[in-house]
Amino acid sequence: MPASPLPSRRTLLKSGLALACAGPVAAGAAAGPPRGFDSPFQPSGSLNPRFAAPADDPALVMPTGSGDLSAMVSFRAADARLHLHLSKPDWFARNSGSDPGLSVNSPGHVTVTLPGLTAAAILGFEQQLDLASGSVVVKLRTARGAARIEVRGVMDRNALLVLITDERSGAGAIQAEFSIWRPEMRVTGEGARVVAREVHDYDESGRKGGSHSPSDLVAGLGLGVALAFAGGGSARGGVLTAPGRGQAALLIAAAVTLDAVPEQEASHRLDALLATGPTAIRRKDLDWWRSF
Description:
The protein is α+β, with helices and mostly antiparallel strands. About 15% of the residues lie in helices and about 35% in strands. It has helices at about 10-20, 260-275, 280-290, and strands spanning about 50, 60-65, 70-75, 80-85, 95, 105, 110-115, 125-130, 135-140, 145-155, 160-165, 175-180, 185-190, 195-200, 220-230, 235, 240, 245-255. The strands form 3 sheets. The chain has a 9-stranded antiparallel beta sheet, covered by helices on one side.
């Protein structure tokens, strides 16, 4: 992905701190969020980066995350879907299409689909990086109604939470898909969740088999990713379908281990998130940002 002039996470956190210390300020001209996801924060529109149209370039992204599992967020014009390109700082993998010395640290890519939505149907659009509450918010308007998506890193869980409100009349079930982009990764649909697993059988130099240096950072390193909609739904391959219609909450967890079964730890973390529930998770996360 080409380099993009985005602020560093340190800069974003400093900006968020400044907003928190300054207290509530007047909001911009954008309309408030639809029902269900009202925010106590009113960040200044001049400080929050905004996109006024769906992205026509993959480099037009906004970051959010927990400091461990993060995502570059983009709502793309080409397919009218939300894209989350994941990153995790303790995951290293050879990029088989490039020099073996290069590494990548993305656990994968998630797309969220609002059924039947096309770019031509979008009459109004705004994507905002909410510096005061640590989230990326997408609002769109169509002739059939409005939709809102909020993506946030869960600060004490090293996870991601995606809240979707789709008020379009006649809309079907919301879907999320986990895309694999390394052939070494295995992705399966298990009940109502998607689980991914990748364990390296090579060392830092790309050599397979034999003994490896104890200081080698790659040999045996494993990644697990697990995602599900709160409340159930179904999974087939790498595609999740949300239960019901109109609202959905997608939870994404990831783990890096050396025990050859990283997917078990990722699923354990997802279980804890689902047991807590998206409403309580969001409330606690907003409390964290309020006190930050």
